[in-house]
Amino acid sequence: MKRYFVILALILICQAGNSQTMNQLFNEFSKIEQINHVKIGNITMKLASLFTETMGVNGIEVLEFGSCNSDVKQRFEKAIKELKDPDFETMVTSNEKGSRTKVMVRIEKDMIREMVVLTTGNSNALVRIKGKIKPSDIEKVMKDHGNGC
């Protein structure tokens, strides 16, 4: 019986060792030269708030894999499968026409502090939105732009 607990503990440790957090995922792929990396920081978002409603967003980071070779894309897909971040929960998952999209959120005190959109398939991409976003603002955006426009 004792041996079974040791084996179970080793399996759990191995699984945890392979998993990756959201920050590790962004750090790993933002360093690759083939990936287009765009980061809009706090100052730029404050400037944008003068002209449009930013809904509490204070930073956006985008990694686009369009010009990457297939090896990098496969590593990305594997990393997403191994992604295990206890701070994030899945909000929406979509599979259609060879493309998979997953929206994950990190919530603190009833506010969305971070939203990450992970897309694999024909056009791999990672989008991270940080701020203090009210869930009602997300609902409003989805209602206003739910038809894809």
What does this structure look like?
By secondary structure, this protein is α+β, with helices and mostly antiparallel strands. It has one domain. The protein contains five helices and six strands, in the order ααβαβαββββα. It has helices at 2-18, 22-30, 42-48, 70-81, 135-145; strands at residues 36-40, 57-64, 89-96, 99-108, 111-120, 125-133. It has a six-stranded antiparallel sheet, sandwiched between helices. A hairpin with a 4-residue loop joins strand 5 (111-120) and strand 6. The N and C termini lie far apart (59 Å). The model is unreliable at 14-18 (pLDDT under 50).
Characteristics:
38% helix, 6-stranded antiparallel sheet, 149 residues, 6 strands, globular, 5 helices, alpha+beta
Order of strands, main sheet, comes to: 1-2-6-5-4-3
The outline comes out as: globular
Which consecutive residue ranges, at least 5 long each, have pLDDT under 50?
A: 14-18
* Helix/strand class: alpha+beta
The fraction of residues in strands falls at: 25-35%
Sheet of most strands: 6 strands, antiparallel
Quote the distance from N terminus to C terminus. 59 Å
Number of domains: 1
Mean pLDDT, to the nearest integer, reads 80
